[in-house]
Amino acid sequence: MERAKISAYQLLVLIFLFEIGTAILVPLAIEAKQDAWLAVLIGLVGGCCLFWIYHSLYSYYPDIPLTEYMQRILGSVLGKVLAFFYVLYFMYITARVLRDFGEMLIIAFYPETPLFAMNVLMVLVVVYTIRKGIEVIARTGELLFIIMMLIGISTIVLIIISGIIETSNLEPLLEKGLKPVIKTVFTQTLFFPFGEVIVFAMILPYLNQASKAMKAGLLGLGLSGLVIALIMAMNISVLGVNLISRSHFPFLSTIQTIEFAGFLQRLDIIFMLSTVIAGFFKISLYFYASLIGTANLFNIKNSAQLAYPLGLILLILSITIASNFSEHVYEGLQIVPLYVHLPFQVIIPGLLLIIAFFKNRKEQRKRNS
Amino acid sequence: MFSFLKWKKKKKNSDNQQEKSPIQSTDKLSNNIETSLTLNLEVIKQRTGNSTDFVIRPVNLGQHPKVKTTIVYIKGLVDNQTVNDFLIEAMITNPTLQEQITQQEVVDMIVKDVVAVGGIKKLSDWDELFTELMSGNTIIFIEGISVALSVSTQGGERRSIQESTTNVSIRGSKEAFTESIGTNIAMVRRIINTPDLWIESMKIGKMTKTDVSIMYINGIARNEIIEEVRKRLKKIDIDGVLESGFIEQLIEDQTNTTFPTIHHTDRPDGVAGNLLEGRIAIFVNGTPFVLIVPALFIDFFQSPEDYYERFDISSAIRLLRTIIFFISLIGPAVYIAATTFQQEMIPTKLAIIIANQRESVPFPAFIEALIMEITFEILREAGIRMPKAIGSTISIVGALVIGQAAIQAGIVSPVMVIVVSMTAIASFATPSYAVAISARLVRFIFMFSAATFGFYGMILVFIILVVHLSSLRSFGVPYMTPLAPFIREEAEDTIVRRPLWGYKKRPKMISGRNKVKQGENQKPNPPQPRTMTNSANEKGD
């Protein structure tokens, strides 16, 4: 582990930027139709529960990351195998997010450019950033957070004053009861984007005040959840459910409908700016988690050395994980949440917590007697 | 080659004998001043190679033929009036010397009764003596005594205090620093009248022996930073320091960046303001530019004048400067990206106009922008270096080349000219020249990225820029403080400025134990409504 410290505010900002990363890009929770925003909010509650699990594990082992304390909990061999799987998991999701952004850029802006070129650039930027360490990532987050906030507020103001919001699109509320909403929560929004906060189980040990971890984490999650829900509600009210379910990138379509005073139109650049910044953080943090996971697992002192080789792997992975965009989306919606996210985000951490609980109680009893 | 090596060996040997200067190689002389006057003068002549600006003048003390003295000084470095009136004349006409005295008592007598000048110092070794002599002091040798006296007579012709030409101000002190370190330090002392204003001096440069002083306010500056500055200055081992830029480049935290991590100014009020925030000033003799550490990114967008105007006006100006900085950074890049990749961003009518104009231009937008930018950079560089007399010629030629002929020849489009001139003006409007040059370099990176990947490339370069800026430190303080790490109270003094009465604390990351800047309740209030107006009314009635 590098010797670095981040503050509670920086953690909050990183969680925020990380969560909204891909969530504002895709038609999130659209199976719940016009109640997508509700599905997001319920997912947020579930995400907070998951964060409680990760935080409890963190409070047992405040100085070491996830991949290291699972070795303490499960023993060296089993723990190492599991830690290796976690590194693979982080790597795979990094590649997925990278692919998402590459595809988005190609479909929306650069139809002639090969995916490889788009991803190479992003990987170079991410590798450059990662080599500077977590403190620099956190400070970058603080600066870009301000810019994201400015963009967000101005976008919302522009959407409102251009008069394209149709609140009737959000009605009727709970048309088919609560069931489809709950189903969406447990097949999608719980894991993506909120369960992905498991990445911060790798980063929490860098926090300078352990007591503030819970507050900062929940605030960051809550803020991002509200923003995502707001954006989804805005998308639905502007575009309507039908249009969204056929659109790859509903937020882009929403922004494209902005027209104000005859000259403020086609603000695609705002969409590109906000998604690339948020996506950059998502990729960077996932990549950073896999980087320190690898360094930890193989006892590599200077984890920055790993940035280039892992970056190369990431690049190749992002190209080869799916042969085309529809395959990529299908995997992302049907396979990944249930078979990848569920075990890695919920089941394993839950089991770890239970074992850690009993282990620590035993040790405490020993100490007391 | 061989002779060189031999020489080196010799030098090593002489180093072992703890002596560096060539005087030691002539073995009959030690480092101590001799008793014999003629021998001493011989040493001076020998070591200075009989340089003609050395004045060696024998003086008979109080017309007393027994006490032979000689004064030595360097023409031009001393104040002639002081030397003539208070030194030579005082020594010649001194009446108290008529009685018989021993030669040992002469020294004390000269110090106490004869010389009518403030600073006087006894010297016994040559190195010290030459340092004094070179800095403009006058040396008195006395026959038969192995002690020389150094009288402070520094003076000579110097540029007087003038208005700053690089940091022009509308409101505020007009005086700027000069080349003399003593004058500069005194100018700051006149502003901050506290004994806590501490100064430490040293000489840097093996040949130039330049005076370098660090100045800080004890208690307000942070001790670790002072210690760090001392350490870095002591480490410098260079033959000459010609300008504070030499020091700056040798004590920076990071060298692989285009952004300045040390601030410099030539205005005493700017230095005073920074000292009050806990920063440390480094004065270098021979230059009006004083270094200030630690410097944060945001400091380069501020001028001392911001605090003299009211906060609303200053805030508006600072916001404008932020916009200006962004224009100077990405102006041409946006044009390239918009015309090459994202044409849909431009409103339709404007897009048609631009397309019309660009129809006859044979180059892609990037080449077009590059031609104009480089032309402009050439003109600017020429404008700085050329003699003033031909300035108007260049500006006419420049205006014609940039403005008219290039468009008529169909090399560039009129919109491009507007973009480039906007950018050029914007880059002049940044308060700090140091950061304006950085923006100039980064602008070309942005242009290149815009030409290859449009706005996506620009956003990625922007992210790299932010990451790079966040990774910098100035004397241990993160460069983007107080924006990252975010410090709420201080962030209000960045791209806007809060009212003066809101500054309760000094910057957290920079200042030392004395943190309180001003008392509570500094906000001005109107007088209690009834009392004052009523009494005035009553008087009126």
Outline of this structure?
The complex is a heterodimer of chains A (369) and B (541). Chain A is mostly helical and 369 residues long.
Present the secondary structure layout:
The complex is a heterodimer of chains A (369) and B (541).
Chain A: H1 8-23, H2 36-60, H3 66-74, H4 76-108, H5 115-132, H6 134-161, H7 179-189, H8 200-203, H9 213-239, H10 241-246, H11 250-256, E1 259-260, E2 264-265, H12 268-297, H13 307-320, H14 325-368
Helix pairs in contact in A: 1-6, 1-9, 1-12, 2-7, 2-9, 2-14, 3-4, 4-5, 4-12, 4-13, 4-14, 5-12, 5-13, 6-12, 9-11, 11-12
Chain B: H1 2-16, H2 37-47, E1 54-60, E2 68-74, H3 80-93, H4 103-114, E3 120-123, H5 126-134, E4 138-142, E5 148-151, H6 181-191, E6 197-204, E7 210-217, H7 223-235, H8 244-251, E8 263-265, H9 268-276, E9 280-284, E10 290-293, H10 311-340, H11 348-358, H12 365-385, H13 391-408, H14 414-429, H15 433-471, E11 473-474, E12 477-478, H16 488-491, H17 529-540
Helix pairs in contact in B: 6-9, 10-14, 10-15, 12-13, 12-14, 12-15
Structure description:
The complex is a heterodimer of chains A (369) and B (541). Chain A is mainly alpha-helical and 369 residues long. Chain A has a single domain, classed as Hydantoin permease (Orthogonal Bundle), CATH 1.10.4160. Helices cover 74% and strands 1% of the residues of chain A. The longest helix of chain A has 44 residues, at 325-368. The mean pLDDT of chain A is 90. The N and C termini of chain B lie far apart (102 Å). Chain B is globular, with a radius of gyration of 31 Å. In chain B, a hairpin with a 5-residue loop joins strand 9 (280-284) and strand 10. Chain B folds into three domains: 19-151, no CATH class; 181-295, no CATH class; 311-478, no CATH class. In chain B, 47% of the residues lie in helices and 11% in strands. Chain B is α+β, with helices and mostly antiparallel strands. The chains are: A mainly alpha (369), B alpha+beta (541). At the A-B interface, helix 5, helix 6 and helix 12 of A face helix 15 of B.
